[in-house]
């Protein structure tokens, strides 16, 4: 037994900061791209590369966001979202349902809040 063995001195501050500070962006990306790991459900785990309609709306919007380049056309993004979510009317050309549009806008605003999407000037 050493006296004062409870005292711990560590002089590498940079390594300590790297280990103690989390990486929230990596965790958010994993949660959005693979929500079945966090939700503990089997409906989302079927295909990792396939965008399923059973995924949460923000995960669908995030995966579609990853498929696009730097700039995203909002109308095309909305049409892709609607084709995945509402597969019954996938082949029909019609106006977008207001509820689906509201769900899409909510998912995009959440992605913007998280810092994945930035508006252009």
Please, could you describe this protein's structure?
With 121 residues, this protein is mostly helical. It has helices at 13-20, 24-33, 36-39, 57-67, 74-85, 98-114. It is elongated and about 80 Å long. Helices cover 51% and strands 0% of the residues. It contains six helices and no strands.
Short summary:
This protein is 51% helix and 0% strand.
Descriptive keywords:
0% strand; 51% helix; single chain; 6 helices; mainly alpha; 121 residues
Q: In terms of topology, how is this protein built?
A:
Layout: H1 13-20, H2 24-33, H3 36-39, H4 57-67, H5 74-85, H6 98-114
**Shape estimate:** elongated
Strand content: under 5%
Q: Helix amount, in percent?
A: 40-55%
Q: What are the secondary-structure elements, in order, as H or E?
A: HHHHHH
* Class from helix and strand fractions: mainly alpha
Low-confidence runs: none
Q: Please count the beta strands (DSSP E, at least 2 residues each).
A: 0
Note the main sheet: none
Average pLDDT metric:
83
Number of helices: 6
Q: Determine Rg (CA atoms, Å).
A: 21 Å
Distance between the termini: 65 Å
């Amino acid at each position: 037994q050493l006296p004062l063995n409870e005292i711990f001195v560590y002089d590498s501050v940079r390594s300590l900061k790297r280990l103690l500070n989390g990486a929230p962006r990596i965790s958010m990306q994993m949660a959005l791209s693979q929500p079945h790991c966090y939700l503990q459900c089997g409906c989302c785990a079927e295909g990792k590369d396939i965008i399923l309609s059973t995924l949460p709306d923000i995960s669908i919007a995030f995966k579609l966001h990853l498929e696009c380049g730097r700039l995203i056309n909002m109308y095309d993004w909305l049409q892709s979202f609607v084709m995945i979510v509402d597969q019954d009317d996938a082949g029909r050309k019609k106006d977008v349902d207001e509820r689906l549009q509201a769900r899409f806008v909510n998912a995009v605003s959440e992605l913007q809040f998280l810092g994945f999407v930035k508006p252009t000037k």
